[in-house]
Design goal:
Largest interface: A-B, 43 and 57 residues
Distance between the termini of chain A: 105 Å
Structural class of chain A: mainly alpha
CATH architecture of the largest domain in chain B: 2-Layer Sandwich
Largest sheet of chain B: 4 strands, mixed
Distance between the termini of chain B: 83 Å
Number of helices of chain B: 7
Order of helices and strands of chain A: HHHHHHHHHH
CATH class of the largest domain in chain B: Alpha Beta
Oligomer: heterodimer
Number of helices of chain A: 10
Largest sheet of chain A: none
Structural class of chain B: alpha+beta
CATH topology of the largest domain in chain B: Alpha-Beta Plaits
Number of domains of chain A: 3
Shape of chain A: elongated
């Protein structure tokens, strides 16, 4: 026995180190790691579980049917409701949770539910004239020049929505 | 005299003999381990990434997503950038998708402007980048929306030290927020600048093609919000899908094809200055 004492000791040390490593590894590495590749397999389902915030314009039709019809049949049907008004998830949740409350109160209670529209900033996103934008897309350089050219009276702070209905682009 | 000082004794283990045996044992363990690992890898194909010989993922019947951007239609309104930020909680100053404005001048100069990633539709400073050498307005220009290319040969997944970056069977490149340690290797590895370290969560973040939407049958938020229909998303393994028909009938390019990352985001109408 005496001559193998060194090996027995060494092997015991190695076995202990291997055991420590394996138990640490079992704690550190998730169970489903590596079943589909070098990653945690359940991460895919977790990534897919998040709730969509943009619900689509169709979702607005139920309550805002007259505006929806005007918008969808008008010239401005390409930009969606949520492009200017913001994602509808919170808004719809708010409305359906208690349907006896008055509508404006819910917007006040959840100010982030729907972004307020400025009536000019949203228009500039698409309709400010830059050299890349096609001629078919009606665009202007300044509100003042546009108002004067079309025969209106410009006052400081005039907005696009003073004259245009943003849902249809029709001049009021 | 103690037995230690008599190395000539045959029955005793000398230091030399001990080291020899240890080296032999180590070598045999190493060879045995290598054999076991190789066999395991051969027998479990899931460990290696499933690939067909052409480099694309196998199983043509499965859903493989693709993204097509028609730069000739983009009007640079930034709706996609705003929708993406709202849908995915992207912090200020960071972008999962952004729009670049290319301007070409009479004297041959080319400028690229992506002020706030196009968040305000280039409304605040439409000609921010007029070069000092010319006062003339640009002679031509166009917008190029950008996002994660969801490459087939991903540099970002290769460098991840903890297996936090991965690719789903649909070809979508994702980050596991539980595994990510925020080291930022993938941010540097991506040649397209598609990744960033989220300052709030301190982990790597990127475009997911709105994986939480597309798995529910919805389109990504940027595609839904695009008023010019410049972004098309769909299943490229279905020959009747809109994207498959457009890919079949257009001259399509990818960004930085020379890097061989084989992007799944493809473009119509790119100039050589963009490639």
């Amino acid at each position: 026995m005496g001559r193998w004492k060194h090996f027995v000791r060494l092997l015991a040390l190695l076995a202990m180190a291997a055991g420590a490593f394996l138990s640490f590894r079992a704690m550190a590495v998730p169970k489903d790691f590596g079943t589909l590749g070098h990653f945690r397999a359940s991460a895919i389902a977790e990534a897919a579980a998040r709730e969509p915030r943009h619900l689509g314009s169709k979702e607005c039709e139920d309550c805002h049917d007259s505006i929806y019809v005007a918008w969808s049949e008008g010239k401005h049907s390409k930009p969606q409701c949520e492009n200017c008004h913001g994602p509808g998830l919170l808004h719809v949740k708010t409305v359906s949770e208690d349907s006896t409350d008055a509508y404006p109160d819910r917007i006040k209670r959840y100010p982030k539910a729907l972004q307020p529209t400025t009536g000019i900033q949203e228009c500039k996103w698409c309709h400010l004239k830059t050299f890349e934008r096609p001629a078919t897309l009606k665009s202007i350089n300044s509100v003042q020049r546009h108002v004067e050219k079309t025969g209106g009276t410009y006052t400081a702070g005039s907005k696009c929505t003073d004259c245009h209905d943003p849902h249809t682009t029709v001049v009021k | 005299m103690s037995p230690r000082s008599t190395p000539s004794d045959e029955s005793e283990i000398t230091r030399r003999k001990f080291l020899e045996v240890c080296a032999e044992a180590g070598a045999s363990i190493f060879v045995f381990g290598a054999v076991v690992c190789t066999t395991a890898k051969l027998m479990l194909p899931s460990l290696a990434e499933a690939r067909s010989p052409d480099g694309s993922d196998k199983d043509a019947n499965d859903v493989i997503y693709g993204f097509l951007i028609d730069t000739t239609k983009c009007i640079g309104c930034g709706s996609c950038v705003r929708a993406c930020k709202a849908e995915n909680n992207v912090p200020d100053g960071y972008y999962r998708t952004w729009v670049e404005q290319y301007a070409f001048y009479e004297n041959g100069e080319v400028t690229v402007n992506s002020a706030s990633g196009g968040l305000n539709g280039f409304a605040d400073a439409p000609q921010l980048d007029i070069p000092e050498t010319t006062d003339e307005p640009p002679v031509r220009g166009f917008f190029v929306p950008k996002l994660c290319n969801h490459c087939i040969n991903t540099p970002c997944i290769q460098v991840c030290p903890v297996g936090a970056s991965y690719k789903t069977k649909e070809g979508v490149v994702l980050v596991d927020p539980q595994r990510c340690i925020g080291c930022g290797y993938c941010v540097q590895a991506c040649p397209f600048g598609s990744r960033y370290l989220n300052p709030e969560t301190r982990i790597a973040d990127k475009c997911t093609w709105c994986y939480h939407r597309i798995t529910k049958g919805l389109q990504p938020a940027c595609v839904v919000s695009c008023p010019a229909k410049a972004r098309i998303f769909g299943n490229v393994s279905d020959p009747n899908s809109e994207i498959s028909r457009l890919l079949a009938s257009n001259r399509v390019q990818v960004l930085k094809s020379y890097l061989g990352t084989n992007p799944r985001t493809r473009y119509i109408g790119l100039d050589s200055e963009v490639l």
